[in-house]
Specification:
Blueprint: H1 3-15, E1 30-32, E2 37-38, E3 56-57, H2 62-68, E4 72-74, E5 85-87, H3 88-97, E6 102-104, E7 118-120, H4 124-131, E8 145-149, E9 156-164, E10 167-176, E11 179-187, E12 196-203, E13 211-217, E14 219-220, H5 225-228, E15 235-238, H6 239-243, E16 252-260, H7 288-293, E17 300-302, E18 309-313, E19 324-328, E20 334-337, E21 339-343
Parallel strand pairs: 8-18, 11-14, 17-19
Antiparallel strand pairs: 1-2, 1-3, 4-5, 6-7, 8-16, 9-10, 9-21, 10-11, 11-15, 12-13, 12-16, 19-20
C-alpha cells in the first residue's frame, strides 16, 4: 500500500472509531437519530448518543458498514509489537492467533495454584519451564513415555504437563459419569494444532491381547475444557473397562506418544513391523521398586536404553505430590514432570 492509500485508509479508520470504547467498529454498526455511529458492543449499554444525546435507534449504518469492509486494520496488539495489517475478514482470525496477545499463565489447568504471570503466547513455554519446574530441570521427553495415575478412582480429575517435540503439552484426564476421558492439549497457536497427534495405549504385561490403543489429534489450550474432554471427541472408555487395568496398588499405567501428524510410524510397533493386532501395545517393564520410588520427591535413576520416560499423575488431593527429576543413564538430558489431581 503506497503512502497516499495508507493515509486515506487511516483517515477512514478514524471515522470507524466508536465514540464510547474507541475500538474500530465492525458490522453491524448502529447509529443515533442524527446518524452518529456506535459499535455493536456499546449500543446495548447506551440509551442516548454519546455525541449529541439523541436517541439510539435500531437502524444500521449500512454505508459505514460497506466502507468498513474495504479497509485494512492494524492488529489490536500493535502497541505490544504486532506489525500485521489485515482485512476485516481476516481480523478476528488473526487476533485469535496473534503471538503478541497477552495471556494468563495456563498452569492453573494442571494445578490449584493461581499464577500471576501474564505474557505472550510464544513466551508461555519458557515461563512454565522456568517458573513451574518445582526445583528440577524441565527437560525434553523424547518418543513414547509412560504415565501413571496414583490412587485411581471415579469422580476425580488429573492434570500434568510435558515437553516434547520442542513444544509444551498438557495432559488432561477426567473420571466422571462412569467414563474415563483423556486428551492432550497443545500450548501454542491454534493454527499449529493440526500439526500434532497422539497415541494413547492402555495395556497389561500379562497378555498382549488385553490392550487398547487409540489415536487422536491434539487440542488447543484455549479451547473450552468441556469441549476438550467431551465424550466421543477424545479417548473415551467406560470406567469399568479401565478399572480392569489397575494394578494391586490401585495405580493405572498407560503410554503416550505425541508425534507430528504426518508421521505414519505411530501406527506401527516399535520394531518397525506392522502389527497384526492394531489394538495390541507391548508395555515397558516396570518393577515394584521403580513404581514405589516414583512416589518420592527426589531424582530417580532409570536404568536401561529404552529411551522411555515415566510420568506420574499425582494423588488427587489438590497438592503436588510427585515433584521429581527423571534421569536416563547415559543420556544428555533431564526430564521433570509435575502432576496434580483434584477432587471434583
Amino acid at each position: 500500500m503506497d503512502s497516499a492509500a495508507t493515509s486515506s485508509n487511516e483517515n477512514f479508520l478514524k471515522e470507524l472509531e466508536c465514540p464510547v470504547c474507541y475500538e474500530y467498529m465492525e458490522p453491524p454498526i448502529g447509529m443515533c437519530e442524527t446518524g452518529h455511529p456506535i459499535c455493536v458492543k456499546c449500543k446495548p449499554q447506551m440509551r442516548n448518543c454519546p455525541v449529541c444525546r439523541k436517541n439510539i435507534i435500531g437502524t444500521r449504518n449500512i454505508p459505514l458498514e460497506n466502507i468498513a469492509g474495504l479497509l485494512v486494520y492494524p492488529c489490536k496488539y500493535k502497541d505490544v509489537g504486532c506489525p500485521e495489517i489485515v482485512s476485516l475478514k481476516e481480523k478476528l482470525r488473526h487476533q485469535s492467533e496473534c503471538i503478541h496477545e497477552t495471556r494468563k499463565c495456563p498452569f492453573s489447568m494442571v494445578s490449584d495454584k493461581n499464577c500471576p504471570w501474564q505474557g505472550r503466547i510464544v513466551d508461555i513455554k519458557s515461563h512454565v519451564k522456568n517458573d513451574h519446574k518445582q526445583g528440577y530441570d524441565a527437560g525434553e521427553v523424547s518418543g513414547e513415555f509412560d504415565v501413571v495415575i496414583s490412587n485411581f478412582s471415579a469422580g476425580k480429575f488429573y492434570r500434568g504437563h510435558v515437553f516434547t517435540l520442542n513444544e509444551l503439552f498438557f495432559i488432561m484426564c477426567d473420571v466422571k459419569n462412569s467414563n474415563f476421558l483423556f486428551s492432550i492439549v497443545h500450548v501454542g497457536l491454534k493454527k499449529n494444532v493440526p500439526n500434532f497427534r497422539y497415541r494413547f495405549a492402555l495395556g497389561t504385561n500379562k497378555s498382549e491381547m488385553n490392550a487398547i490403543s487409540m489415536i487422536f489429534g491434539v487440542r488447543n489450550f484455549m479451547d473450552d475444557e468441556e469441549s476438550v474432554l467431551n465424550l466421543g471427541d477424545c479417548v473415551s472408555l467406560h470406567y469399568v473397562t479401565v478399572a480392569k487395568f489397575l494394578d494391586e496398588n490401585n495405580r493405572l499405567y498407560f503410554k503416550i506418544e505425541i508425534v507430528p501428524s504426518d508421521w505414519d510410524q505411530i501406527l506401527l510397533h516399535k520394531t518397525g513391523e506392522e502389527s497384526s493386532h492394531s489394538h495390541t501395545i507391548t508395555l515397558c517393564e516396570w518393577t515394584s521398586s521403580c513404581a514405589s520410588d516414583c512416589r518420592q520427591r527426589h531424582p530417580i535413576d532409570v536404568y536401561g536404553n529404552t529411551g522411555r520416560l515415566p510420568l506420574v499423575l499425582g494423588n488427587p488431593i489438590g497438592q503436588p505430590v510427585h515433584n521429581f527429576g527423571l534421569r536416563l543413564i547415559g543420556q544428555n538430558y533431564d526430564s521433570t514432570t509435575n502432576f496434580f489431581g483434584q477432587r471434583m
